[in-house]
Amino acid sequence: MFSFFKRFKGSKESENAPDESQTAPEGLVEEPAVEAPAAPRTNAPAGIVTPPAAAAPAIAPQSQPEPELELEPDFEESSLETVEIVPPPVQDAGAKRSWMTRLKTGLSKTSSSLTGIFVGTKIDEDLYEELETALLMSDAGVDATEFLLEALREKVRVERLTDPQQVKTALRTLLVDLLKPLEKSLMLGRAQPLVMMIAGVNGAGKTTSIGKLAKHLQSFNQSVLLAAGDTFRAAAREQLAIWGQRNNVTVVSQESGDPAAVIFDAVGAARARKVDVMMADTAGRLPTQLHLMEELRKVKRVIGKAQDGAPHEVLLVIDANTGQNALAQVKAFDDALGLTGLIVTKLDGTAKGGILAAIARQRPIPVYFIGVGEKVEDLQPFSAEEFSDALLGG
């Protein structure tokens, strides 16, 4: 379902053996990466990157070499690293059941109004009207609701469905197809450091999501550095510092000053230390605050000056409880920054889980992670099938 990346040392077994190593992106000088603190590797979620294995995996077909790297005189060729696509690891059955239980519980308020429609009823116009109301109440939006109902009517007619549970199954299939474009893996190893810029409005769970994501990355042997780009709120810096202490991760911060300057320094520090991933927190702001949105654009431009091609990921953290307002945020931040992915938080206990259908229909930006609680393991990669099953009580 996902693409996974493995990083391992490239070496030549003999002079006649073909060199299968790939070089790092142009302009970066790679040295042995700083190892992140040891972290448990069991029950690691899919959707990020697999940790180095004891033995080198088979090379995936059609791997493309990256641009050549200018090496420093004292840099040994044997230290170059290769990125390979490998099969996803089999997730522990217990961890999988635990996550699905939390996801279903979190979406129970949304699913209750949908699943009850197909119990003790018949397939008629009343069923479609009830389903339309339930989808709109879940904040799926008018566009996605009309799209799903029209497709469902056609499916019922063509396949001659006569049982309400068959209609429910048909709806699940349509919902999976709608949400599938949002399903994408977060791929690492493309640059060192891989720079991620995190944006969002106040209260969306931005700083907490950064802390959780840092922990996930460490479970894949990725070294992480955090930048406290929210220089206006002391609480934001303190919160990020706490996460840094928990994960034994360096946090670059400054009590006051220009956020862009703080993040610029953090990129430099990450490059000097050969850190794998640098995540930059930014100040929360509303899309209507045009001068603050312009400041975000400035931060992105400055990151590009600190490292060519950066930021490699621009993620928006949205609160599922805000419903259609979350869709408005996605549109505004995407127009301003060019988003590469979303992190959807606070799906636990929300009655507005249908917002992902609205996003898929109107602005299908990949959803890298969804959150259903406060614990680190409550932030997991998004799966269209798992989400649809939880939403429809599958």
From TrEMBL:
GO biological process annotation, one example: SRP-dependent cotranslational protein targeting to membrane
Start and end residues of each SRP54-type proteins GTP-binding domain: 366-379
**A Pfam family reported for this protein in Swiss-Prot or TrEMBL:** SRP54_N
Query: Per UniProt, which keywords does this protein have?
Result: Cell membrane, Cytoplasm, GTP-binding, Hydrolase, Membrane, Nucleotide-binding, Receptor
Tell me the compartments it is located in: Cell membrane; Cytoplasm
Q: Give the compositionally biased regions (Low complexity).
A: 34-66
- InterPro entries recorded for this chain? AAA+_ATPase (IPR003593), P-loop_NTPase (IPR027417), Signal_recog_particl_SRP54_hlx (IPR013822), SR_rcpt_FtsY (IPR004390), SRP/SRP_N (IPR036225), SRP54_GTPase_dom (IPR000897), SRP54_N_sf (IPR042101)
EC number(s) stated in the UniProt entry for this protein: 3.6.5.4
Give me the ranges of the annotated region Disordered: 1-68
Give a GO molecular function annotation for the protein: GTPase activity
CDD domains listed in its UniProt record: FtsY (cd17874)
Which positions are annotated as binding GTP?
200-207, 281-285, 345-348
Assembly mode: Part of the signal recognition particle protein translocation system, which is composed of SRP and FtsY. SRP is a ribonucleoprotein composed of Ffh and a 4.5S RNA molecule.
**Protein name stated in the entry:** Signal recognition particle receptor FtsY
Gene name on record?
ftsY_1
